[in-house]
Amino acid sequence: MQNVSKTICQAFKDARRALGLSQSVLADEIGCHQEAISMFERGNATKLSEEYVSRIAKRLGIDIKKLQDEEENSGKPAEVSVSVGYCPDCECPSNSPYTVGGRSFYRITLQKGIYCAHCGEVLEKRCPSCGAALNEGACCTMCGSRYIT
Ligand SMILES: [Zn+2]
Ligand SMILES: [Zn+2]
Predict the structure, then answer these.
(1) 67, 36 contact by CB (below 8 A)
(2) Hey, which of 10, 19, 37, 100 has its CA 20 to 30 A from 44?
(3) What is the tens place of the pLDDT at every residue in 93-132?
(4) 26 alpha carbon to ligand 2 midpoint, in Å?
């Protein structure tokens, strides 16, 4: 892929590491060679086709277009933040159900990235009731409502 700066390539590496993925695991998931990812992360952006780069970006939760715009507008290297979220699908194995006093709860698992690693659902980044930051457990500590009902 053309027009990807070295900093953005580096951002891919940071995001991959933040998610605890090795180059070979990512390569297997995407269907490309580990060497190609290695070269790409070192700044040889042309080693991967646009198709593969966008698949990897999706997996890592990176918005390339946004990073490129940021770099262009600020003239500074792009920064990638990897925030956490939970899967809002009650059927998803990332959430563990339990019952207290006849009420059912789901203990959420906080995951990094944009999509759920288990089912591909878009992760919820905040409490759907009050918008507070997430905490481990089944309920928001700010408003007390269940994350998954
Ligand atoms: Zn899920
Ligand atoms: Zn809340």
Answers:
(1) no
(2) 19
(3) 999 999 999 999 999 999 887 789 899 998 998 899 998 8
(4) 34
CA of 43 to the centre of ligand 1 (A): 32
What predicted TM-score, i.e. pTM, was given to this entire model? Answer: 0.55
The C-alpha atoms of residue 101 and residue 47 are separated, in whole angstroms, by 57
What domains lie within the chain, and their CATH numbers?
6-74 (1.10.260.40), 83-149 (no CATH)
Selection from 83, 86, 149, 82 nearest residue 118 by Cα? 86
Residues 73-100: tens digit of each pLDDT: 888 776 665 578 899 999 999 999 999 9
Give the ligand at the shortest distance from the Cα of 140: 2
Å from CA of 96 to ligand 1 middle: 11
